[in-house]
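Standup notes
- HV: blocked on the assembly model, inputs below
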Amino acid sequence: MRILYFAWMKERIGTGAEEIDARDTATAHELVALLRARSEAHALAFEDLSAIRVAIDQEMATFDSPITGASEIAFFPPVTGG
Amino acid sequence: MRILYFAWMKERIGTGAEEIDARDTATAHELVALLRARSEAHALAFEDLSAIRVAIDQEMATFDSPITGASEIAFFPPVTGG
Amino acid sequence: MDGPTSATTVSVQREDFDLGAEARHLTESSTDIGALVSFTGLVRGSAETVRAMELEHYPGMTERALETIAAEARSRWPLDGVRIIHRIGRLEPGDQIVLVLTASRHRQAAFEAGEFIMDYLKTRAPFWKREETAEGAHWVDARETDETAANRWDG
Amino acid sequence: MDGPTSATTVSVQREDFDLGAEARHLTESSTDIGALVSFTGLVRGSAETVRAMELEHYPGMTERALETIAAEARSRWPLDGVRIIHRIGRLEPGDQIVLVLTASRHRQAAFEAGEFIMDYLKTRAPFWKREETAEGAHWVDARETDETAANRWDG
């Protein structure tokens, strides 16, 4: 599964993309638990989930959304375009 | 006093402007009575006041508005610009 | 004085206008404008429906009415610039009739002020349209919906 | 098919855009469009405040999100054309960031659809601004007011 990070999430984690084996994770929330365990930087970046948004296969989603079968999950702060 | 007509008011009356002595008329309504008496065309043009708007010295007004001291009164159909 | 962008400029003219040039002119002298909204009104029609229209106006009062409408918009929203252009004379389908530009720090102000100016212009600025169709020419009737649109800004 | 004007076209690009040219392109192929509304977003700032900003986005999702927003607008209002351009990369005060054009027979539809698209774009399209100030660079925080503005179109 491809994981993407944008804006300060990318800066804090130190990379914009990583591959992860997440076959046993059912929701975005469970995926976050898996990612937090990867490094101190991950744990810090994912500290406050209220400041983070998630997209599943390029569609806005919630942390309760199922991720089974998804190929691309992205984490980023609330958007600030326009 | 200068009287102006626009759009179909001008066409029906046959002129876009006329001078009239309206010293004894207090309101736009009284002025209309005076104008109606000028010709058959005037009477016809002023037949339905609900279809006519009035401006006193280039400001939108009503038929009850006082015209004493005004120098230019215009009659026209509801506006259709834009 | 905060320079040319804070100005209200109103034109009633036969000539066509250039949206891009007018937009640049309104925004170029300030870097405090975050939002620019434009409304362009165009003549709708075809050989089968409206072939052309003639726009008559009340010289003198027209400019005053447009300036009053712009001033009213500026008293209601924080605007950095307002530009109104209304054409007169003969126009054909596809031709531009009217341009309203509103510049502001805030996008909602720019949008609402633009819509307000158009609603008021439609019901308060002395212009009259005469349409030419296959059946002949006739003066356009005012529309109830324009009156309703203008009234929603009251109170 | 009602020709190119009925199209929705979305671009995410580094290059600047030309409001006048985009407006002409959207309206020129039809004489049924009576109203064209544009929104242009510009970078606010100065040497003392925001010197520049960097716009990051999520390639692939951005275009999809903008197309979904445009489609949602078209399902709510009778539109004859929608054009959205959003710039990415480094921008300076006075630079254009975003353009939204909405064409319709009805002016209220064009105004409301433009405002709706901007409100949704601000809260749903994956762009992030990083501002450079005299104190350094920082990611811009999302604003509560943008969320409120987007929510008013619900229900």
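- HV (later): unblocked. Chain A has a mean pLDDT of 97. The radius of gyration of chain A is 12 Å.
- Next: hand off to the docking folks.
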